[in-house]
């Protein structure tokens, strides 16, 4: 699907049609277990526009992370199609079209913070001087300049996640995939990193498209432009809720009454799905 711009005026430069950043169409996924097949995803359709932040929420174990891993090319769907700027995930990865961060920072234990951030740049063939300059800028932006030479075991959980985010952003990808990056942190650290992510997204030009997996409804509303609600397994899209909080968004928006109303709306959708499952006796 293409998003096309209106016909330009004759005195304006011609703008080429824009492709969505992420297209997920008809994706299904089934796992084979000792007790039989388990269907995780049932015909998922999601489109993320360039520069848009979309959060995936749903019950634990519903397939949110599975869907993100399929987008990243780490798993294959049984049916359906995924494209990132028109490219299959494997090709998008080769062309450095996305960065990814997980719940666990997944840092290489024998490399210090700077070397972990530098890894994508090394693999992409950046020369040492340019690599060092880029890493220094990213660490400074994340408030980690003083920690550049520390090994992961010498960093707090929040600092490790900052390093992981810096690494995901190293090649300035147009897509950022985040799989519950703050869920293992204490509440205060999580809120601090949410604010830092908002600040990052407000200052990066062009802003990357973000697909965020989270089980925290308030986090989804705070960070996202749109929230996609998935059902219990096998997951299907229950609802898409537009977050109409103003931009640039700041961390103190978590106290906004509109945010609380949207969280309540999401909770109602999820509870209704839970009640239907319980009522059916499944």
Short structural summary:
With 282 residues, the chain is α/β, with parallel strands linked by helices.
Describe the structure.
The chain is of the alpha/beta class and 282 residues long. The protein is built from 8 helices and 9 strands. The protein has helices at residues 64-71, 89-94, 113-123, 128-141, 157-168, 187-203, 217-223, 257-280, and strands at residues 22-33, 36-48, 53-57, 79-84, 98-101, 175-179, 209-213, 226-230, 237-242. It has a 6-stranded mixed beta sheet with strand order 5-6-7-3-8-9, with helices on both faces. The model is unreliable at 1-17 (pLDDT under 50). Pfam families: ABC_tran. Residues 22-257 form the ABC transporter domain. This is ABC transporter related.
The major beta sheet can be summarized as: 6 strands, mixed
Domain tally: 2
* Rg (CA only): 20 Å
Residue share in β-strands:
15-25%
The structural class is alpha/beta
CATH topology term of the largest domain:
Rossmann fold
Q: Strand order, biggest sheet?
A: 5-6-7-3-8-9
Number of strands: 9
Ends apart, CA distance between termini: 36 Å
Helix-strand sequence? EEEHEHEHHHEHEHEEH
Helical proportion, percent range: 25-40%
The chain-level mean pLDDT equals 89
Oligomeric state, counting identical vs distinct chains: single chain
The CATH superfamily of the largest domain is identified as P-loop containing nucleotide triphosphate hydrolases
* CATH level-1 class of the largest domain: Alpha Beta
Protein name: ABC transporter related
GO molecular function, one term: ATP hydrolysis activity
Organism: Chloroflexus aurantiacus (strain ATCC 29366 / DSM 635 / J-10-fl)
Keywords: ATP-binding, Nucleotide-binding, Transport
């Amino acid at each position: 699907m293409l998003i096309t711009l209106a016909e330009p005026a004759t005195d304006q430069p011609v703008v080429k049609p824009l492709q969505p950043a992420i297209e997920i169409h008809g994706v299904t996924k089934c796992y084979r277990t000792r007790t039989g097949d388990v269907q995780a995803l049932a015909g998922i359709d999601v489109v993320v526009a360039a520069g848009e932040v979309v959060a995936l929420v749903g019950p634990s174990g519903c397939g949110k992370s599975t869907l993100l891993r399929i987008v990243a090319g780490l798993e294959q769907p049984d049916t359906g199609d995924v494209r990132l700027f028109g490219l299959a995930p494997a090709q998008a990865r080769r062309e450095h079209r996305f960065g990814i961060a997980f719940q666990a920072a997944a840092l290489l234990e024998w490399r210090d913070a700077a070397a972990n951030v530098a890894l994508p740049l090394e693999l992409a063939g950046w020369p040492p001087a340019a690599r060092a300059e880029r890493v220094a800028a990213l660490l400074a932006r994340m408030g980690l300049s003083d920690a550049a030479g520390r090994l992961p075991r010498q960093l707090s959980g929040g600092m490790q996640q900052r390093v992981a985010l810096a690494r995901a952003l190293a090649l300035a990808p147009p897509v950022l995939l985040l799989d519950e990056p703050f869920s293992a942190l204490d509440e205060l650290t999580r809120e601090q990193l949410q604010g830092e992510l908002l600040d990052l997204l407000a200052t990066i030009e062009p802003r990357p498209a973000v697909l965020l997996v989270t089980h925290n409804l308030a986090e989804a509303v705070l960070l996202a432009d749109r929230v996609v609600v998935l059902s219990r397994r096998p997951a299907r899209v229950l609802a898409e809720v537009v977050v109409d909080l103003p931009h640039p968004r700041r961390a103190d928006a978590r106290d906004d009454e509109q945010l609380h109303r949207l969280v309540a709306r999401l909770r109602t959708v999820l509870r209704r799905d839970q009640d239907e499952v319980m009522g059916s006796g499944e």
